[in-house]
Amino acid sequence: MRVAGSLLGVEDLSLAEVSALLTLAGELEAEDPLARSRLLLKRRVALLFYESSTRTRTSFELAAKALGADTTLVSSKSSSIEKGESLKDTGLTLRALGVEAIILRSAFAGSPALLERATGLPVLNAGDGAHQHPSQALLDLRTLLRVLRGGTAETTAQTLAGVTITICGDILHSRVARSNALLLPRLGARVLLSGPLPLLPEVAAAMGPGLTIERDFDAALPQSDVVMMLRIQAERLAGLHLDLHEYRAAFQLNEKRLAAHPRLWVMHPGPMIRGQEIVDAAADGARSLIEEQVRHGVAVRMALVARALGVRASS
Ligand code: CP
Fold first, then answer.
1. Ligand 1, from 53, 59, 105, 295: best to mutate by most atoms within 8 Å of Cβ?
2. Residues with CB under 6 A from ligand 1
3. pLDDT for residue 315
4. How many domains, the chain?
5. How many Å lie between the centroid of ligand 1 and the Cα of residue 14?
6. CATH number at residue 262
7. Within 10 A of 91 (CB to CB), how many other CB atoms are there?
8. What is the pTM of this model?
9. pLDDT band at residue 234 under the 50/70/90 scheme
10. What is the tens place of the pLDDT at every residue in 108-121?
11. What does the pLDDT average to over 210-231?
């Protein structure tokens, strides 16, 4: 049983709950900043970041602070984890200090579930190994709904019917790919997965319904309304060697591919490795949604932190 307000994976949310979260994100974004800052005044939220992060950590922190919460950041380098303290004991310590919700990024798949079980507190998974990154999938969805569906917060099994999204790159190690691949088909989107065999095993299509492997990126692009590019996760390759020249030739979103598909929306969860999976013209072009994705992070994470502490959408 999930603790109320936790979010460990996208499967924790019904489509009605996704819709309620997106509605709450819109309400909080539109709210007067002073009124908003009283919503969670002095409530305590811990950010436990055991893996590097720029976007997720910063936006969760800004989101919690925008609602008036007190935040504390714990990272592996400066905490007692370095001395061998367990995740369970860290969680119990934070709970004893009055923390009411924990946001966790970890290299280990499943660690948010362990922390939730140990503490009984709501846990927001900010990325666990190669498993899931549900808040990223929600902010990606908000971005897609803005450009493709006029910004609706209503999500049904038909909301993205007729839309094809290609996710390209290191699918195997990408928690973003997994969360999106599990969420987007539930809204009716067709999702193509593209990448070389070592980074996209055939079993990836069995992650969930609505997924198709199209290994030929140049065959996937003409079918797509949106492309989500992913970096190669060098920190998780564990001895796997790729010919990067070949990789770029087959899977880079470069000027030639961009010019051939001028109406393609370009997404990337970041961090980008420019010149590797994506070139400047794609990352900075008129059809790039990459900065917009980051912006939606604060609103979506405000909604997640508020939900974790018991706030619901008013409409
Ligand atoms: N997209 C994402 O998770 O980025 P960070 O690693 O910078 O948080």
1. 53
2. 53-56, 127, 133, 136, 269-271
3. 62
4. 2
5. 24
6. 3.40.50.1370
7. 24
8. 0.97
9. confident
10. 999 999 999 999 99
11. 97
